Amino acid sequence: MSPLRATLEYHACRAGIAGAAGLFILTLLPGFYWMTIKPVHEEAARLAARIETAGNRSQDSGDAPRSRNERIRAFVEFFPERKHVPHWIQQIHTVADKEGIVLERGDYRRPTGDGPLPVPVKITLPVKGSYAQIRRFITAALADVPTLALDEVSFQRQSARDPKIEAQIRFTLYAGDK
Predict the structure, then answer these.
(1) C-alpha dihedral, 79 to 84 to 89 to 90, nearest 10°
(2) With 0-12 CB in 10 A as exposed, 13-18 as middle and 19+ as buried, what is 153?
(3) 37 φ/ψ angles, rounded to the nearest 5 degrees
(4) Which of 128, 121, 80, 78 is nearest to 103 (CA)?
(5) In what helix (H) or strand (E) does residue 100 lie, and over which residues does it extend?
(6) What is the band of 149 on the pLDDT scale with cuts at 50, 70, 90?
(7) Coil, helix or strand for 52?
(8) In angstroms, rounded to a whole number, what is the distance separating the alpha carbons of residues 51 and 18?
(9) Is residue 170 within 8 Å of residue 136, measured between CB atoms?
(10) Count of Cβ atoms closer than 10 Å to residue 83 Cβ
(11) What is the pLDDT of residues 160-177, one digit of tens each?
(12) Hey, is 138 helix, strand or coil?
């Protein structure tokens, strides 16, 4: 028997099962690294490069407002014109219909006169439905109407066994000055 083989057998006997398991894990580690960790690092590097190039592009583009007045004008132009407010309110009603929520009435208030921009339109909607329906309605309305903000939600149930919930939802829809 060769001295190398004898030495390996001696150390294998001394290490026992724990040593054999440790050796087995050590042999699997390079494969684990190349199959799981390395691709994640490469993807992170690709994403970091995309973020870097996107940042450079936005700084280099001539579309970015430079002066304070241009930045304010760009901010105000983001909001829909006042004449489009009925369209966005109709969009909220469409989302409610899609979620199976009946909007019997609503309170819509817009400040009169010249006020700060953007102009807030306060919307109060009493609704009835299941908790899941109401939650889906709120989520979909906020996703579909870009300048809609959720101010308050209050829930009330007539009895513990009643599956229907009455909710009072308050939104603010922001509009521009045109």
Answers:
(1) -140
(2) middle
(3) -75, -45
(4) 128
(5) none
(6) very high
(7) helix
(8) 46
(9) no
(10) 10
(11) 888 888 899 999 988 876
(12) helix
CA angle (60 as vertex; 55, 64 as ends), nearest 5 = 90
Distance from the first to the final alpha carbon of the chain: 95
Instruction: For residue 119, count other CB atoms closer than 10 A to its CB.
Output: 17
Q: How far is it, in rounded angstroms, from Cα 44 to Cα 100?
A: 42
- Predicted TM-score (pTM) of the model is 0.58
Report residue 33: phi and psi, to 5°.
-60, -50
Contact 172, 161 (CB under 8 A): no
- % of the chain with per-residue pLDDT over 70: 89
- What is residue 162's predicted lDDT score, i.e. its pLDDT? 83
Residue ranges with strand state E in 39-140: 107-109, 119-129
Q: How far is CA 111 from CA 13, 93, 108, 132, in A?
A: 86, 22, 10, 33
CA–CA separation, 135 and 167 (whole Å):
10
Residues in the chain: 178
Residue that has been written with the tokens 């009603």 in this structure? 93
How far apart are alpha carbons 111 and 118 in whole angstroms?
11
